[in-house]
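Re: pyridoxal-5'-phosphate structure - here you go.
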Amino acid sequence: MQVVYFVNSGIEANELAMLMARLYSGNLGMIALRNAYHGGTSNTIGLTALNTWKYPIPQGEIHHVVNPDPYSGIFGSNTALYAKDVQDHIDFGSSGKVAGFIGAIQGVGGAVELAPGYLKHVYDIVGKADGVCIADEGIGNDFPLGAVVTTPEIAGVMALKIQFNTFGGNLVYSVGGLTVLRVIDKQKRQAHCADVGSHLIGRLRALRERHDSNYS
Ligand SMILES: Cc1ncc(COP(=O)(O)O)c(C=O)c1O
């Protein structure tokens, strides 16, 4: 991935990513996870699958698939069944082709871990249906900064018309974004999250063993 489009927010990044997915694939339908938040503009409100965030306006051609939550999801941690739900939406609710899939962090829906290997399964399925896969994640740490990172081939579709963004990639926010990346590297935040996260999950699993649970 060698092309980065800078915008001002996560919502704008999702709007642009969805536009690219639709132009690149030549299809309209987007697949999104139930329980996930992707924004409140007219297109991203369609992607969002939480009724508390959805105003009654046209939502576009969006397929909301079952949330692959390994703890309280309807299929437990059975990744194959969640992946089958995605395939079913493509087979029975679309022309057999889709523009793309958006997923990863669910935002206001919570920090929900996905069933093991879910994204790999789903990316394969969506790729076979000609769709592109979008990972919706944050950037900027409070700076109004968003980015769409993609391949030159996909970005090429934007050359057909003019795309303009007054403040996207402006100097102040770019310096802010760069500083955030430097701090993440310097403080080894990714390794720290992996350490603390695995420790927490390990201890929570141990607690689950010791106490009755309704979840498998
Ligand atoms: C997963 C996710 N996508 C998109 C957004 C929208 O980002 P923004 O508020 O920067 O427009 C958010 C915001 O919290 C989010 O959590």
